[in-house]
Amino acid sequence: MNGWQTVRLVKALRAAGLPVSSQDWVEAALCLNRFPDIPKRVMLRSMLIHRPQDVSIFDLVWETFGAVPPPKRQTSDSLAVLENSPYGSGGQSSGHGSGSISKVPSLAGLASFTYAPSSTGPGEEVLEFDQILKQALTHLDYYVWINSVDLAYQRGEITEDVYLFLHQQGLALQRDVRQHLLAKQVEIENSWLPLKRQYWRHKPLQALAAEEKTLVQTAIRQLGKKLAVRPGLRWHAKGRGSLDFAQTVKKSCQQDGFIFHLLHRRALPRLPELVVLCDVSNSVAPYSEFFLYLVGRLHARFHRIRLFFFIDSIWDVSGQVWDKDMNELKEEIESWGRLGTSGFSDYGQVFKIFAHEVLSEISSRPTVLILGDGKNNFREPQTEYFAQMQEHVRHIFWLNPLNIAEWSERDNSLPHYLPYCTKVYRCRTLDDLQEIARKIF
Fold it and tell me: What is the mean pLDDT of residues 44-50?
């Protein structure tokens, strides 16, 4: 790897969202010259990556960057029977749609695959890329082949060792196809931005893989611990403390502008009440589990937390325990989501029920958080009830998992509620969620 390749690699890592400093770069270059026997990939990863959760994105950038050819797949001597098996690893794909495939599909089959990404809105590129990945695997007859492997194992035609080995081969093929498509996307866009969109910190929460969900869960847990011990403050009149300029001027105006005494104030801890309204319909449920996981770790910061689920009706779930594992939360949310009478969100009806049945039960001036996409399925927004909520509470913060451009679509009622909200945030990625937590909590 020469100096120019190193510059391009560092630029790609930075574009992907990794914090590579100039000092890291200089030290890595010195180590490359001083220890030429150490593999460059190992050296650069140890020098440029400081957090274990960022190793995966480094590997993604390295392989897409093409600094070295991908390693050849290793075969096992104990599985030499594959060479004579109709399901063996020969690296050849055949018979598009013609039935059983004799060999593991090969990456070479992508030569006839047309990569044509469409013009999608911001934030949708990751979801579209996953669709293109599936199309490419279908083009290689991967799904036909893997189904034939499963069927052969069920019939007892191959042993368990062979079955597991072939599945590992299939996973390796998926990784190779993903890398190939990413490299193509980087080339077409002439930018490293596609790599950043694959980074778990910037991905839409609904597009996360299982291992990425674990990383996000850990990050949210750490964020919750920090927020739980950070005191909320309110100002209180005191004989000593910082000068309360506004109150001093106000008092002097009552005395014809003469200042007889200075007024001071001091910050005191407070434990406000938090009311959470969470849409659990199918379109929002993938985001709800992450948001609830954070809320479940904030009990120490609030005097009381009231939690409500809604679709076209509303359910008080404050008594439920939401400090659970993410997988358990997902199942819990889905079970409540099936209780909707129509299955489609009706924000107007929900706010009407809340104003009539809940508003009188909560204390004055709480903070209200609403997680929802605002899609009202062309039903009446009934903003008068939302206005009643705004008059009774201290703040209304709306967290929307959709991109900002989608907030004003025809079936979205969010524009009707905007005048009554303290602030509306996009809540689509981990970065969004962390930024919202820092500002609101």
Answer: 85
